[in-house]
Amino acid sequence: MEVILDVSHELRTPLSTIRGHVEGLAEGVVEPSEETWALLQAEAERMGRLVDDLRRLSQADAGQLVLSPAPISPAEVVGLAIERMLPLFEEKGVELSSMVPDKLPPVVADSSRVVQVLTNLLDNALRHTPAGGRVVVEVGGDGEAVFGVIDTGEGVASEHLPHVFERFYRAEKSRSRSEGGSGVGLAISKALVEAMGGRIWVESPGVGEGATFSFTLPISRRGS
C-alpha cells in the first residue's frame, strides 16, 4: 500500500501540470507557445522515466533483470558515464572529473548496467551539489574494484544514511521531485550492483559536508 501511495504522489504533480495546461489550451487561456509545448513534453517524459524505473525495480524484485556479464574496463565505463552527464554538469556550473588508474584490472559486469549505475549516482550528485561545486569519480580497490562518486554538495545527515537507497525516500520531505529524479534511481542502482555481485553504500561527514557513494564489482580472474 505504501508503494502505491508513493507512486500516486509522484505522478500527481506532472499529471496535474499536464491537465491544467491542456484545459487552458482548450479554453484559450494558455497560449500554444514553444514554452508550453516544452513544458508538456518535459512532464510527459518525467512520467515516462518513472514508469521505466518502476519496471526495472519490478524486474529486480522478481529476479528477472537481464544481465550480460563480461570482463570490462573500469576506465571505459567511467568515461562513458562522464561523457553522458558532462553537458548537464557544465550547464549547472559543477566541475566533473575522474581519477582512474591506467592499469586497473577488468571487472566482471554488464557494461551498460554499470554505466547506468554511474549515471544514476552522477545525476544524484549533480542535483545535490550547488554551482561552483565539484564531483569526482574514482576507482580503486584491492581484491575487488571500488567505484566512488564523491561530491562537495549538501551531504547527508547520519540518521538518513541507512535509508537513502530506499525507493522514493527523501531526506527532505518538503523537497519537490520537480527538481529532478524519479525517487527510485538509487534503489535501482542498489538492485543492479547487487545483481552483478557487488555492494553499494553511502558515506557523509554530515549536512553541508558532501557525500561519497561507493559500490564494488568483482575483478575478472581471466585478465583483460
What percent of residues are in strands? 15-25%
**What oligomeric arrangement do these chains adopt?**
single chain
| Distance separating the two termini | 47 Å
The major pleated sheet works out as:
5 strands, mixed
What value does the Rg take, in angstroms?
19 Å
The helix content is 40-55%
Mean pLDDT metric: 84
Describe what this molecule looks like in 3D.
- This protein has 224 residues and is an alpha+beta fold.
- The protein has helices spanning 2-27, 34-61, 74-92, 111-127, 185-195; strands at 70-72, 95-99, 107-109, 134-140, 144-151, 200-203, 211-218.
- The protein is built from five helices and seven strands.
- A hairpin with a 7-residue loop joins β6 and β7.
- The longest helix has 28 residues, at 34-61.
- The chain is globular and about 65 Å long.
- The relative contact order is 0.15.
- Mean pLDDT is 84; it is low at 173-182.
Condensed summary:
With about 220 residues, this protein is an alpha+beta fold.
Question: Which tags fit this structure?
Answer:
alpha+beta; 224 residues; 45% helix; 17% strand; single chain
Write the layout of secondary structure elements.
Elements: H1 2-27, H2 34-61, E1 70-72, H3 74-92, E2 95-99, E3 107-109, H4 111-127, E4 134-140, E5 144-151, H5 185-195, E6 200-203, E7 211-218
Helix pairs in contact: 1-2, 2-5, 3-4, 4-5
